[in-house]
Amino acid sequence: MKKILHRSETRGDANHGWLHSKHTFSFANYYDPQRMNFGVLRVLNDDKVSGGMGFGTHPHQNMEIISIPLSGDLEHQDSMGNTTVIKEGDIQVMSAGTGVQHSEYNKNKDEEVRFLQIWVIPHTQNVEPRYDQITLKKEDRKNKLQQVLSPNKEDAGVWIHQDAWFNMVDLDADKAVTYDFNLVSNGLYLFVLEGSVEVADEKLERRDGLGIFETQSITLKASEQASVLLMEVPLRV
């Protein structure tokens, strides 16, 4: 087993006033040649947007873009004709493919919105742009893994153009789960949303990240009540 540890405080920090973003990997003005990606996992941004503010219309191309709201309401509009709101419990995916434009705004003026924006490099270029979102049942991840993303349209969760699987889990203190890799050639990136867990001889705290590879399974145990996002992705870009 091999590991790459990213402590929360080592992430890039971009504070634009209306937007406060923490970058696990190099993004915009934050650049670290040692932290460009974890395989095809290219971007993991932890964003906080002030009330009524947001990202104006901007383009994307040939990227799988996943948004996971943590609190508040995020309003989305795009050039495919979608106008919608995502909130805690939802997961959104947009395959940018040949090109798409979209905007994201905090729907509420009196509270901030917090969300993760994740970019995954696709295995196929120039696909037809596509949008989807679903609402997850939080009780389905209580002390067990809940699949929220995969490469397969018929599976649970949303799907993307990549051999990647995302799971979420909410663990009570001292509870543990084992994750078995779908592809042993893949790597697994764990991101602690809340609480703390022990995995691979490491103790991970809130917003710490850990990449694990060259193994077939891992077990994580909660030191206290915890929520974790697990992202299994190909290591070769």
Structure description:
By secondary structure, the chain is mostly beta strands. It has two domains: 11-135, Sandwich (Jelly Rolls); 138-234, Jelly Rolls (Sandwich). Helix content is 0%, strand content 55%. It has strands at residues 2-6, 12-15, 19-23, 41-49, 54-60, 64-71, 73-78, 83-87, 90-95, 100-106, 113-120, 130-135, 146-150, 158-159, 165-171, 176-180, 186-194, 197-199, 202-204, 209-213, 217-222, 226-234. Strand 7 (73-78) and strand 8 (83-87) form a beta hairpin.
Q: Any low-confidence stretches, pLDDT <50, length ≥5?
A: none
Instruction: State the major sheet.
Output: 7 strands, mixed
Give the termini separation: 20 Å
Taken in chain order, the helices and strands follow as: EEEEEEEEEEEEEEEEEEEEEE
Give the strand line-up of the largest sheet: 1-20-17-22-15-13-14
Characterize the overall form. globular
Give the name of the CATH superfamily of the largest domain: Jelly Rolls
Radius of gyration equals: 17 Å
The name CATH uses for the topology of the largest domain is Jelly Rolls
Report the structural category: mainly beta
Task: Give the CATH architecture of the largest domain.
Answer: Sandwich
Give a count of the beta strands, DSSP E runs of length 2 or more: 22
Q: What's the total helix number? A: 0
**Average pLDDT for all residues:** 97
Helicity, as a percent range: under 10%
Pfam families: Pirin, Pirin_C_2
Keywords: Iron, Metal-binding
Domain Quercetin 2,3-dioxygenase C-terminal cupin: 148-233
GO molecular function: metal ion binding
